[in-house]
Amino acid sequence: MAERKETAPPPPSLGAAAAGDMVTIEVGPNHQNYQVYKDFLVYYSDYFRKALAGPWKEAEGVVRIEDVEPELFKLFIYWLYTQDVKRLYSEDVDVRECFKLSYGTAASRMMFMKLYVFADRFSVPKLRKAVNNHYVTSGARFTPWYDVVIYAFDNLPSAYKILDFLVDTQCANWSDKDSPEETELKAKLPHDFLVRVMSRSRELLRGGKSKKIIPCEYHEHDSEEEKKACGQEGK
Amino acid sequence: MIAGRGRQRIRPPRRSVAGDDVDFEQTWTKISAAFTEIHTKNASRLSYEELYRLAYRVVLKKKGDELYKRVRQFEHNWLSTEVRSAIQALFSPNLLANTQGLGGTTANERRVAGERFLKGLKQAWTDHQVCMSMLADVLMYMDRVYCQDVRRLSIYTTAMLLFRDDILNSNTSEIDSRVVLALLNTVILDQIQMERDGDVIDKHLIKSCVYMLESLYDDEMESEDQRLYNVSFEHEFLATSSEFYRHESEFLLRDSDAGAYCKHASRRIYEEDERCRSTLAESTMPKIRKVVEDELIKNRIHELVEMESGVRFMIDNDRLDELNLIYDLNARVDDRKTELTRAIQKRIVDMGTDINNAAIAASQATPAAPAPEAGDKAKGPNQEKSLNQQTVAAIKWVEDVLQLKDKFDHIWKDSFQSDHSLQTAVTRSFADFINSPTFPRSSEYISLFIDENMKKGIKGKTEMEVDAVLDKAIILLRYVQDKDLFERYYKKHLCRRLLMNKSVSNEVEKQMISKMKIELGNNFTLKLEAMFKDMTISEELTSGFKKHVEGLGDKDPKRIELGINVLTSMTWPLESMGSGDDDENKRPKCNFPMALDRIKRGFEKYYNEKHSGRQLTWLANMGSADIKAVFPKVAQKDGSFKERRHDLNVSTYGMIILLLFNELPADQYMTFEEIHAQTNIPRNDLMRNLQSLAVAPKTRILIKEPMTKDVKSTDKFYFNEGFNGKFVKIRVGVVSTGNKVESDRERRETEKKNDDSRGFCIEAAVVRIMKQRKELAHQQLVLETLNQLAAQFKPEVTMIKKRIESLIEREYLERIEGARVDSYRYLA
Questions:
Q1: A101 near A88, Cβ under 8 Å?
Q2: Rounded CA gap, B398 and B404, in Å?
Q3: Cα separation of B267 and B278, whole Å?
Q4: To probe the interface with A, which of B10, B21, B40, B49 has the most A CB atoms within 10 Å?
Q5: Torsions phi, psi of B565, nearest 5?
Q6: What is the pLDDT of residue B481?
Q7: CA angle at A88 for the pair A85 and A91, rounded to the nearest 5°
Q8: Residues A179 and A200 in one domain
Q9: Over 50: is that where the pLDDT of B17 sits?
């Protein structure tokens, strides 16, 4: 059964999307309403494409997602129309305010991890990649926040590379000067995380591998060429 | 900039998105309930988001494996209970009876039952696909994370395989061990057979089932040739088709003519193509085409071509459409079109041989008739007549060959799509019969054809038409192998035309030469062109001499005007201009009367002043003369006496003979012997000239005694004073001056001469080759010699051997002693 491979059509233009349907997304326990251009949704997200195309209840044009924070969804919409994760820091006052985004803060790191999980769950590969790469590049020299670690290990399949990234930055950058809050969280660190830190540490002790984090190795690349270009850039 | 470990931070929500440990059984209950709804087409009440979230959480909690197994099991159960029983409900007695090959059901009953089955199966398949696509959408996260991680087939693919195993490969019933797939094949094949027999079937329906077979594979590799369509259906389809067409071709060959067969075969090929497009798969097209082509054409083409209504019949009746069909069919199975080519070639050679035989028969028909007549008496004119008939036969031969050529050109263009290999074959066959050893006269006939046209045929024709005639001759010439023999005849005929002023147009003559030059090369026309040059120079000489004579002195009213042609002896075929009966080689010299002799010497003097060292030989037998004759007064019908004057056009010999009687008293006579003694005209020529002067009724200027048709040496001749001509100008024809077909003896002579000159050509070629190669093996030498001479003629190998022998004798070559193969060395 050969699954049909579709060659990617070009992304929708705002003009074309504006002429098309709007979809109502009710987000969060309070059913916060968002109107989104359908063309954009179905282009970037397999999830929405399938939800809206099949003979489901959602075919009426309303998708109800209760277990997602409205602010997070707002961020998604923001990305949907700008296609640029870095601008999330700067441009939109509203978004920045609600997540208190600024580089490196625990809140913004957490927000990006949530956005990653969102992209994974709702199958938005382009967003997932953008978030991953940004997350890796900007966090390579720091110990991960423990609440981010806890959240990520709880909400992502264990084979994901971004989890390796958390483990490896922990091993590379951790010094035992954790703040009281962090110390408090240590008790809740996921078992899987700790085990992986142990074996990574062992590897490093044996001296087989370099401690240094090379961000490119944790990036998601669409192709070999892209990976090569990225590696060059990293040097 | 990165702010390091800032103080402002938010607490993560304690409850994770995926929730805490999910209760798998509870979740599965929800999911499976929803799946049942989907299968029963009630999905519109379901929320995609909810189902997706359930599956997502299960996978996130590492229960993907369990989920996958449950879904698979669910589908298996669904298919083997619900769907299978629905399918089994479609099996009617008619359907099963048919597949068991039992008779007793009508085609219509079978068709209806079959269609019901196909429809049901198609419906089940479509439903399955739709449902599974919905399930796969819901289980997207499982496919992406779980199936990829552990390298499982996607759930959709798995479910399709389940359809194959649980439905198609299931038994048709408890007691019947045949599987549904086999039944499906049989039903489709049965439907196709109905269509071949002229019924209308639901192509679209079958196509849907074919799609199903195309999207399922026999193994897990999913390679193209493992599709169920290829593995199970196509194979059977080709086998049954092969059998069907084998029977059909047998039947058709027996019951219809070749044309109908071709039409039918073409239609069948088209139908099968169409069937692949509309009903089956395009990938089958080349395979079934091969089956049809093999059964209907390849295995039958020989019989087809040879049928009574086959190629021969089509050619003879100008069935261009049918020939085109048979060409098309043959070309499909054989690039070289062997069978058709063979038949065409045979027909050409047969028809060509008929033409040859007709020509031979026509030329022999008349000589047989006069044979019983006594003695020499009737021989002269009759032979004459037969020669004319032969000439007519020759021209008819050329016309017939051209017509045949036209016919096949037409067929070639209209029916054979101007096919290259067939053109070569046609050309070879024409060459075959034209150069056939049983028909040695083609060169002569073609030359005669041109001769005839040059003398009469092109009169009153436009330039275009003339061109067409010349081209025809060239076309035939192309086929002729012995170009040298043709050259010989052409020279002979051209010579007569030029010297006797028989050509209608000099321009056309030259046109012909330039056409031959293009076709056969410079060498071939060199001598022919030289002949024209001689003619031009002769004209200049004649007028020059005339001026010269005028300049000599007073105008003499009795002066004889001389028109002269000076011919280069190597260029002109002079030997063929002598009367054919002359056996002695030396040119006969006749005695000219004084008046002539003077002017002859005058010209010789004039000529020698211009070109010293050249010897002029006078060919009195070739010339003609205009003389004014005065006949004495004799009583006319009205009683008056009147002198009569005639302008006589006679041969040079005729003139010499008549001049003798100028000095003879009217009542005196001369015997044949006396005339011969005085003139020294060869006996044969003399005899013929006397015949036309004394025997032919309209030009009886002399009286012969006794008055018989033949001239004998004892005959006496008187001047006919009472000659009465109707016209002032009288032409005294001499027998045998035109170009006619040679008698057999003449031809043998020509061939002998031709062989002689071939000998020289061969020797020249051998010497040329050896001079360059110094040493060469015998076989090699023969081969190269053949190659060199191919443009002129095809020498016999024995002749080449003889020439080599002769060259060795004359020490141009020597044998290399002790060489492994026979070899020669060139001796400088």
A1: yes
A2: 10
A3: 16
A4: B49
A5: -120, 120
A6: 82
A7: 130
A8: yes
A9: no
Interval A132-145 mean pLDDT: 88
Task: Please say whether the beta carbons of B769 and B784 come within 8 A.
Answer: yes
Task: Compute CA distances B319 → A191, B48, B336, B339, B401, whole Å.
Answer: 92, 71, 22, 18, 20
Same domain, A77 and A60: no
Count of residues in chain B? 828
Q: Answer whether A100 sits within 8 Å of B10, measured CB to CB.
A: yes
Structural domain including A54 reads 21-67
Please tell me whether residues A39 and A139 are part of one structural domain. Answer: no
pTM (global) more than 0.80: no
Report residue A91's pLDDT band, with 50, 70 and 90 as the boundaries.
low
Query: B754-777 pLDDT, tens per residue?
Result: 788 888 888 888 888 888 888 888
pLDDT digits (tens, 9 = 90+) for B686-733: 777 777 777 777 777 777 777 777 777 777 777 777 777 777 777 777
Query: Looking at the partner chain, which of A54, A138, A145 has a beta carbon nearest the beta carbon of B134?
Result: A54
Q: Determine how β-strand B823-826 pairs with β-strand B775-777.
A: antiparallel
- Which residue, chain included where needed, has tokens 């799509």? B417
Please report the pLDDT score of residue B237 as a whole number.
Answer: 93
Percent residues over pLDDT 90 in chain B: 21
State the ipTM, two decimals.
0.91
Domains in chain B with CATH codes: 18-216 (1.20.1310.10), 242-333 (no CATH), 343-350+398-533 (1.20.1310.10), 622-731 (3.30.230.130), 746-826 (1.10.10.10)
Find, in chain A, the residue whose alpha carbon is nearest to that of B18.
Answer: A155
Nearest to A51 by CA among B46, B160, B31, B32: B46
Q: How many CA atoms lie within 13 A of B552 on its CB side?
A: 14
Interface of B with A in 383-412 (CB under 8 A): none
Same domain, A111 and A58: no
Q: Which run of H or E residues covers position B93?
A: helix B93-99
